[in-house]
Amino acid sequence: MSEHVAICVLSPREAKERIGALSAVLIDCVEGGASVGFMAPLSQERANSFWKGVAESVAASERILLAAQDSPDGQIVGTVQVVLRQPENQPHRADIAKMLVHRRVRNRGVGAALMRAAEEAARAAGKTVLVLDTVTGSNAERLYTRLGWQKSGVIPNYALWPQGGFCDTTIFYKQIGQ
Fold first, then answer.
1. What DSSP designation does 11 have?
2. Which residues of the chain have pLDDT under 50?
3. What is the pLDDT of residue 178?
4. What pLDDT is attached to residue 134?
5. What is the C-alpha separation between 121 and 155, in angstroms, rounded?
């Protein structure tokens, strides 16, 4: 990983204060073709609204928000969420959501560092099973496999690409404790 990138957990206050920076990463990913729940073009207003909801969820202790920051200027260049709130019969499980890395810092280990930090944060929160989904055949799928995630299966036509057209989704899980 680049020596200038640090991973940190954002507090509820920091999550709220950094909405603009988080939105910039999300918009960049959608513009780059990432199927992460939004259609193109993604407006600043829509992205900000999404992150406002995430900040509220962080404040309610329903999720952990991690950010990769470029150390010299503190600019957010990546993010991932650990969704803690689950049904009552799944208190041991968490979902990994919205692992996003700005295109200008990809292939520098930022995604791997975010995922390792997310796993550690989930473990510290008492979670033992993690679940995520990603576009089949994507760089993210290869990353998760390298990090020891287990492929559960593929769902055809699960989502749309930001510009339209169906994409398949691979479901992964990882045991991180007992």
1. P
2. none
3. 80
4. 98
5. 28
How far is the C-alpha of 122 from the C-alpha of 41, rounded, in Å? 32
pTM for the full model?
0.96
**Burial letters for 9-31: b for 16+ Cβ neighbours within 10 Å, e otherwise?**
bbeeeebbebbebbbbbbbbbbe
Q: Where are the alpha helices (DSSP H) in 32-70?
A: 44-59
Q: Is the backbone of residue 165 left (phi > 0), alpha (psi -120 to 50) or beta?
A: left
CA distance 21 to 129: 30
The pairing of strands 63-70 and 93-101 is unpaired
Amino acid identity, position 83: V
- Per-residue exposure over 136-161, b if at least 16 CB sit within 10 Å of its own CB, e if not: bebebbebbeeeebeeeeeeeebeee
Q: Whole-angstrom Cα distance, residue 174 to residue 153?
A: 13
- Sheet with 75-83, edge to edge strand ranges: 5-10, 63-70, 75-83, 93-101, 129-135, 166-175, 150-160
Tell me: the pLDDT tens digits for 72-116? 778 999 999 999 999 999 999 999 999 999 999 999 999 999 999
The rounded distance, in Å, linking the Cα atoms of 81 and 102 is 15
